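Give me C-alpha cells for this 304-residue protein.
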Amino acid sequence: MEHHHHHHASLAISRKLTIAAIANAVIVIAELVVGFASGSLSLIGDALHNLTDAAALVLTLIAVRLERRPATTAKTYGYQRAGVLAAFVNSAVLLALTGMVAKEAIERLRTPHAVETSAMFITAAIAMLINAATAMSLRRDGRSDVNIRSAMIHMIGDAVSSAGIIAGAILIRITGATQWDAIVSLFIGVLILWSSWGVLKESVNLLLEGTPSGIDTEEVSRAIGAIDGILGIHHLHIWALGSSKASLSCHLMVGDVPVRSTSKLLDEVNAMLSHEYGIAHTTIQFEFANCAENDPYCVPYTMR
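Here you go.
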C-alpha cells in the first residue's frame, strides 16, 4: 500500500514537472523574441535564466523517473541519488550563467541601448504569473526533496526576476533612463547566485556522504545513548541515499548481555530514529563490551 502511494505521488510530481518544463520553454521563446525585438537585455537575460530552468526541470523530471527504477545487482540502492545529482548540475549551471549576465549588464551600463518598454512589461508580466503558479504547484513536494526544491527555487527566482523586469520597464518609462534595464539584469544575476548557492551546497554535502541538513549527529548520539541498555556508541555515521532518505550505521555497546535481549533494544532504537529524525534505514551492530579507554570514536553513556 505504501509503495502504491509513493508511486502515485511520483507520477503526480512527474506531471507537474512536465507541464512546468513546457511552460518554461514557451516563456524562453517569447522572451528571446521580444527581448531582441525590444532591445531589452533584462528580457534576454531572463530568457537565458528560464532556459536553464527548463533544462533543470527536464533533469529533475528524469531524476524523478530514475528514482522509481528498482535496484539491481549492479546498483543495489537503485537510482535514489539521481535527484541529488540533478540538483547539483542545475545549481552549477545557474552559477556559471551569472557571469555571462553580469558581464553584458556592465557593458550596457557603459553604453546604454534603446528599450521598448511596453513589450518588455507585458512579456515579463505573463512570465511572472506562469512561474509563480508553477512554484506554488511544487511547494509541498519541495519540502522533503532537495531535487524538487531545486526546481521550485528556480521557479521562484524566475517569478522574482520577472517582477524586477516589470519594475525596470516602469522606471525606464518614468525616467527615460535605459540603464535601468542593465541594473535589472545585474539584479537577476545576484538572484541566480542567491537561489543556487543553498541548493548547490546541500547537494554537494549529500554527494560527499555528509550528514543531511536538519539532523544533528551529536543530538542523535545523545538520543540513542539515552535508551536504557545502551552503554556506548561507536562509529556513528549518518548520510542520505537520496534527498529525503536518511540512513544511519553504528556500533552499539551493550555490555555482557544475552544476544536474544538485543532484538527488543534494536526495535526501540529504530522506532526512535524513525519517529524523531526520519531515519528509516539503519545498519546497527551490537558489541557485547564497553567503550575502550581513550577510544576517540566511542561515546560512552555509563553515567546516567
